[in-house]
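User: Could you check the structure of this?
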Amino acid sequence: MTANHTRLAAILTAILLAAALRLVPHWPNFTPIGAMALFGGAYFGSRALAFAAPIGALLLSDAVIGFHAGMPWVYGSVAMIVLIGWALGRRITPLSVAAAALASSVLFFAVTNFGTWLVSGMYPLNLAGLAACYVAAIPFFQNTFAGDLVFSAVLFGGFALLERWLPILRAAELQSA
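Assistant: Sure, the predicted structure tokens are below.
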């Protein structure tokens, strides 16, 4: 197995393990969804794989948990979070990852709650209904952000440690350094 294949396998494994954490009991919205998408966007060289891996892992875990009407909004959010991961690129620092986690949480909150307002039938389809939907979701935001922050720290920090301990996992341009 080449160094690139080993690195790819390690990144895929990290995302799949994070997705598996959705299957264990957790606080509402304290999940690795945003972190998986950020990590995939930042670390996969292939843009197609950057989208496919986190969305595929999410789909696998949803197959176990159950599908729901809000899935298009969740999956759309995940795809947009991959783009935030791309923006991180090689500028991965604790501060940039924390800022990306916050941006991911805000994006997920805005998109998924807009979807809830639009299709759930729980709120009137007017500005007051949209505001009521967002207000009702505020208590869940803290867990979304905490989950994105914690799981991003685990994925990005854990992978940085693995790269240090196992040079074969380093990106090809960093292996000679």
